[in-house]
Amino acid sequence: MNNMNLTEFDFVMKYFKIEILEHDYIQLNNSWDYKDITSPFNRLYFPIEGTGIIKKNSQSTVLEKNYAYLIPANSTYDYFCENNLNKIYIHFKTSFIPGFDIFSELSEILKLSFDETNTSSLIHCYNSNELASKIKLKSIILDVISSFISKSNINFNKTYSHIIFLEPFLNYIEQHCSMNFNTDDMSKFFNITSSKLTREFKKHLNKTPNQFVNHLIIEKSKQNLMFDSETIKEIAYSFDFRDEYYFSRFFKKNVGVCPRTYRKNREIIL
Q1: Which residues form the HTH araC/xylS-type domain (predicted)?
Q2: Which of 92-106, 156-170, 227-241 has the highest mean pLDDT?
């Protein structure tokens, strides 16, 4: 990143997105016990006191103070606490390309040193109502996330080349993200053949335009079901499904469970 030119800097400023979904400073006990949890967002944990454990198969990660932990989106773990654990947690998404979280391809939990001075500053800023403290809190979170990006060895140049080509098409798709999307309509809009457009999408995203739109619909629907109060019918209509039953079949085909079950059984553990 030291050789990043102005164009790449502008690219990061324009396309790097972080969305905070929820956060809290919480005290946990041995009732914090969940199995096989997979979440479509990243978890950022700052243990303050006590310990917790995150486990996959025979591999365990102990959550302890003076460290920060990143649990990548779409990874599956068991979460439990034998005694007590006080922590600040932040659930978030981060991306360059809509629908593709930067950390979602990671297979392991990431860990960073986060000493007592940093922890004290984090707690003070989190609990303060002053604007300056909230701005500093944001900078702390961004600094930790950027450190995790460095540890994850994300291929920035590859992402950069994808976005440079895809930008106009992604903007179009954001405006037409629905079941009415048609590749032919987009190809005509950009004066490019459908076959060439499909080849380029496969090259850059390993998905056809229609597959990419379906992927976005699923990701947006998951988030709506987990964090919003919209009814399933309202979610279905927002993506131009003809009714909620058609949406439910589409969702179950792609996720494995129907929207109602996904919302009912979701485990937004803290």
Answers
A1: 167-265
A2: 227-241
Residues 6+ apart with CB under 8 A from 131: none
pLDDT confidence of residue 210: 96
Closest CA to 43 of 62, 25, 81, 70: 70
CATH label of the domain that carries residue 116 = 2.60.120.810
pLDDT digit string (tens) for 17-27? 999 999 999 99
Domain residues for the domain of 241 are 158-268
Angle at 110 between CA 144 and CA 94, to 5 degrees: 55
Please choose, from the candidates 43, 38, 81, 30, the residue with its C-alpha nearest in 3D space to the C-alpha of residue 56: 38
Q: Which of 114, 129, 154 lies at the terminal end of a domain, its last residue?
A: 154
CATH code of the domain containing 206: 1.10.10.60
Tell me, what's the pLDDT at 1?
45
